[in-house]
Amino acid sequence: MAVTFAKRTEILKRSEIREILKITQRPEVISFAGGLPAPELFPVEEMKHIAVKVLKDSGSQALQYSTTEGFEPLRQKIAARMNAKFKTIVQPNNVLITSGSQQALDFSGKLFINTGDVVLCESPTYLAAISAFSAYEPNFIEVPTDDNGMIIEELERILQTVDNVKLIYIIPDFQNPTGRTWSLERRQQFIKLINKYEIPVVEDNPYGELRFEGSPLPSIKSFDTKGLVIFVSTFSKTFCPGLRIGWIAADSSFIEKFVLIKQGADLHTSSISQREISAYMEVYDFEEHIKRIISVYKKRRDAMINAMQEHFIGDIQFNRPQGGLFTWVEMPQRIKAVELLKRCLQHDVAFVPGDSFFPNRQVENTFRLNYSNMPEERIYEGIKRLAMVLKDY
Ligand code: PMP
């Protein structure tokens, strides 16, 4: 076949781990691998009512093309909620509705990255952000992190020595994959540095509203005095991912560019999905819905942490996230997570080896666990099996 694909597609490799994880779809497998919300918390009955209401009240608009920027009442609600929850000062016209926040990541790559430009990210970082940016052929530089977030001295050292940094990608709240949250001090130090070097930042925040304990911290965007922070979020984890509604909140000079990119990509986000979410928020209590999610996930987080404390032996470290969907496990160097996964699958239990979350480095002794997607008994059973396999290893 004489067809030749664009060079960028060579980078988009099939992952060996994804292939291995295909078997986790068998119902007997206890899978801590995905990042799926709990489906029993989706408001199915309420959405039946909302679907009918939207079609009755505004059927022809809901089924028609609409503006690229998004459904105005939804942009207003997003701006108001963001300002209340994340301490930002954004106006509805700073908000662009996207088809999931994944699209916002792709657009950020498209807006800033030329081949060979440098993207800085936390080490480790969200796997599908690496995939989204990779299509624009950057060089990633991983910034070391600890329990309080990105290590600012390391970031500064990189900014001093590397001159083509185009974008910094961060997930400061309940990070995917580690579940860690940046401390207030790190947030303040970070923005000081960003203002000095004037580099655009994508602050990706799908999990910030799912806090089980402790006080919410102001977003990085809330400290943004120079309009450099592009805040990205989604209804996927606080509502339903199937609707594919996310958003970008940024300075209007960025939004204008993003709108042009979106016109070329998909014209606009689903009119009917946008109207459904907006109507849901008018008819039902969205904050109550989020509280229900938090109370269920908190129990699941506790089940997972308790089971690990009870069953893991030896030098196995894991963190206790204060919110979100994930925890992160670090094992002694000699234990390889991919090998551990192969052995675990023989006992019908799965997780994601940490390797894929590091764009450059080979880090083989870590893995990510998700706790949102199954009841406590299954979590206990799965961790017990995992611990048994670990012990034999
Ligand atoms: N960013 C992060 C950090 C995520 O974990 C996810 C989903 N797992 C996304 C973005 C994309 O979410 P969506 O496209 O469903 O909004």
CATH architecture heading of the largest domain: 3-Layer(aba) Sandwich
Q: State the end-to-end distance.
A: 46 Å
Q: Which class do the helix and strand fractions yield? A: alpha/beta
In the CATH hierarchy, what is the class of the largest domain?
Alpha Beta
CATH topology of the largest domain: Aspartate Aminotransferase, domain 2
Could you outline the blueprint of secondary structure elements for this entry?
Elements: H1 16-21, E1 30-31, H2 44-62, H3 72-85, E2 95-98, H4 100-112, E3 118-123, H5 127-134, E4 139-146, E5 149-150, H6 152-161, E6 165-170, H7 184-197, E7 201-204, E8 229-234, E9 246-249, H8 252-265, H9 271-283, H10 286-311, E10 317-318, E11 326-330, H11 337-345, E12 349-350, E13 352-353, E14 366-370, H12 376-392
Parallel strand pairs: 1-12, 3-4, 3-6, 6-7, 7-8
Antiparallel strand pairs: 2-9, 4-5, 8-9, 10-11, 11-14, 13-14
Bound molecules: 4'-deoxy-4'-aminopyridoxal-5'-phosphate.
Features:
393 residues; alpha/beta; Aspartate Aminotransferase, domain 1; Aspartate Aminotransferase, domain 2; 2 domains
Describe this structure as you would to a colleague.
It is a single chain. With 393 residues, the protein is an alpha/beta fold. It has two domains: 135 residues, Aspartate Aminotransferase, domain 1; 219 residues, Aspartate Aminotransferase, domain 2. It has twelve helices and 14 strands. The protein has an eight-stranded mixed sheet with strand order 2-9-8-7-6-3-4-5, sandwiched between helices. The longest helix is centred in the last third of the chain and has 26 residues. It is globular, with a radius of gyration of 21 Å. It starts with 15 loop residues before the first helix and ends with a helix. The mean pLDDT is 96. 4'-deoxy-4'-aminopyridoxal-5'-phosphate binds next to α4.
